[in-house]
Amino acid sequence: MALGCISLVKYPAAVVIVLACVFLVPCAAHHRSSRRNEAQRHVKSDVHEQWFTQRLDHFNGAETRFWKQRYFVNESFYRAGGPVFLMIGGEGPANPAWMQYGSWLLYAQKLGALCLLLEHRFYGKSQPTEDLSAVNLRFLSSRQALADLAHFRSVTAATRGLTKSKWVAFGGSYPGSLAAWFRLKYPHLVYASVATSAPVHATVNFPEYLEVVWRSLAAENPDCPLLVKKASDTLVDRLKDPKTYDNITKDFRLCSKLQIQSKMDSAYLLESLAGNFMDVVQYNEDNRGFEGAVGTNITIKVLCSVMLDSSLGDPYDRYAAVARLMQKTFSQSCINTQYKSYIQDMSNTSWSGPEAGGGRQWVYQTCTEFGFYQSTDSPNQPFNGFPLPYFLQQCADIYNLSNSLDDAIQQTNEEYGGYDTKSTRIVFPNGSIDPWHALGVTQDIASDLPAVFIKGTAHCANMYPPRAEDLPQLGLARDRIFILLQKWLAE
User: What is the distance, to the nearest Å, from the Cα of residue 407 to the centroid of all Cα atoms in its chain?
Assistant: First the structure.
């Protein structure tokens, strides 16, 4: 259930909402949560963090509390009279590496833009409240985040003499949605937006995510998803017999002896292991190394080569081999697949808690605004065992939220319009391999609401720095986005 194009630390697997492009914000991952604490290389940065004063609640004049929001600035490309580029943070800490790398900086250099990155409230160091209790998380929402952006834009424009400049919002994944909605809700403040890999339609159940995973694996080899399905089905059958638990514990290198005491326990294990494939498909061959991402060498091709290797045993054995490969890649000695442990970690309300990097916050947003639950409720996907009720139960177990999510989802789509965006000067890039494109805009809505659908690329691919091995269509997509910006800014 992750989040964005900015990934750092991966959220708990049980939250399968992989939305983030890189848990470091601009393209984070809203959305899937793999319990894996992703190894992260240190990325040096000369960009200094700065702080901006925000209201805790923009919509209640009786609420008088304020807090400090973190942001970053890159003035190296700015030319007097040039535009202002605002990169929107998402469901993870803002990564200053984005102030030094990324295609948006190439556009900034050509167009003479000032570049800003604003961290999302409740993520990273932007901590509005003393803890992450449910009573405080009520101030965490896309609506409050958009109001943060509006106030930041207004004050910054006034203090820096940029009131006549044209502002362009950028974001990937959930921040991509915010980029589109910022232009939609505050058209007087934002001149244009680049909404990359943006899921603009909220939905409680999102089984289409795994359908795209099937198609993306099949594009590599038609037998690959069939073998994954056989392996998953075999594991589900073995979980019915406690006599197999010792072998499963050994095969998948679990941190403690497998115990299945409820459907939630088995669902958590199954979703965690499926997450190995979901994460790789979502970020397949994306150039994320600049932000410190580890594991970018594990691609769809690598996963399918393991699943097709009969020397490793039957499909179940190959599935276990994939799990061990991922553990080795991320320097894990074992994996914790206890649902009780997950709930305990997610229920910790401290800013120093194990899921304070974004897991507790993002899952709260899915439980109150978006849904996005990547369930196995479709027959046209390779996994088994984590249906919609499994995700809804987490909302109750973690936050004591028992109300229907349907009303909240309806309100979100009423607020922003879902697929039916009514605005201008927003471009929607999406990759065909990225499962999130199923909730995005993949066909032109209008001439000034164009889609850029990039075949063969994954989540937020167009945002990352160009490289020689990029597909030709990816380079053309970046060029088209630049041409659109150039055209719009000249109007």
Answer: 23
243, exposed or middle or buried, with CB in 10 Å at 0-12, 13-18, 19+?
A: exposed
Rounded (5°) CA angle 254-257-260: 100
Per-residue model confidence as pLDDT tens digits over 396-450: 999 999 878 999 999 999 999 999 999 999 999 999 999 999 999 999 999 999 9
Q: Which residues are catalytic?
A: 173, 434, 459
Is residue 232 classed as helix, strand or coil in its secondary structure? helix
pTM: 0.93
pLDDT, tens digit (0-9, with 9 covering 90-100), for 105-129:
999 999 999 999 999 999 999 999 9
- The tokens of 466 are what? 């160009």
Q: Are 282 and 1 in contact (CB under 8 A)?
A: no
296-330: b (≥16 Cβ within 10 Å) or e: eebbbebbbebbeeeeeeebbebbbbbbebbbebb
- List residues bridging with 172 in a β-sheet: 196
Residue 250 has pLDDT above 50, yes or no: yes
CB atoms within 10 A of CB 134: 14
**Domains, in order of start, for the chain:** 1-215+355-491 (3.40.50.1820)
Please name the residues in contact with 383: beta carbons below 8 A apart, sequence gap of 6 or more.
Answer: 210, 228, 229, 232, 270, 274, 376
